[in-house]
């Protein structure tokens, strides 16, 4: 039988056990409570011949435990908290190699316990950080909305609205990253769907926003750039394509082209953002709007080229980039 036994004020309980049924015992049955008061290692070849254990309920019980050997589990502060122990129903004596092995395993157990504690602490800190960052995002978004209501200049309003959209995209990316447990990638489908929900929530009643995305992994910088492009396209569609309360739809898709490339496609069925029939490639050099320039910059971050097509049936924007 083997146990990882932790000694508490009034009991010993077993973090793990093999061949031993109880989950815990009272201290009057605990050989480990004697062991942690002794040296780092305790071996009792015959419990019936040892004054510490001759009247122990384990020895006089059924089945009768006659052999005990335990290596202390020592916390970083030097305090023994229990033992890694082995038991038998007959007397025996360990070899020197077995004693050393049990002591080595006890140190390994303690390392695993400390590692689990650190993981729990890091998880708590990460949750606290996530909470604080989300609160910061909400505070800044509220300040931006308040400032936008007070500002009269149209260009200033556009800039404030752009910054608010950028915060929406970053907040979505942050939320996705916090579910990834330290990974530096995000799920393409879950990220785009989460961002789409945030954009749909901010759209007017006459405009619907739908998203589809293939499964796959995106680097953080790729997700950030996609967030910029998608949020600006939706904002431009709402502003220019559905004037006068015209009903319409914005569709966003991210499709995987085999193992090599992604294709991001944004569409609306409005009246077009530019004069009907115009067609072109958006780049930082020939764009006039700040939002377009930011989208072009985001496309460059993806090492892709942003193309647009404006027709009376609506606008299409696409960018292909390597995985």
TrEMBL record:
GO terms for molecular function: kinase activity. The keyword Lipid metabolism does not apply. Residues 128-198 form the Signal transduction histidine kinase subgroup 2 dimerisation and phosphoacceptor domain. The keyword Kinase applies. InterPro entries: GAF, GAF-like_dom_sf, HATPase_C_sf, HATPase_dom, Sig_transdc_His_kin_sub2_dim/P. SUPFAM superfamilies: ATPase domain of HSP90 chaperone/DNA topoisomerase II/histidine kinase, GAF domain-like. CDD domains: HATPase_RsbW-like (cd16936). Residues 225-314 form the Histidine kinase/HSP90-like ATPase domain. Residues 7-113 form the GAF domain. Keywords: Kinase, Transferase. It holds the Pfam family GAF. It comes from the Bacteria. Transmembrane segments: none annotated. This is Two-component sensor histidine kinase, contains HisKA and HATPase domains. The lineage of its organism: Bacteria, Pseudomonadati, Pseudomonadota, Alphaproteobacteria, Rhodobacterales.
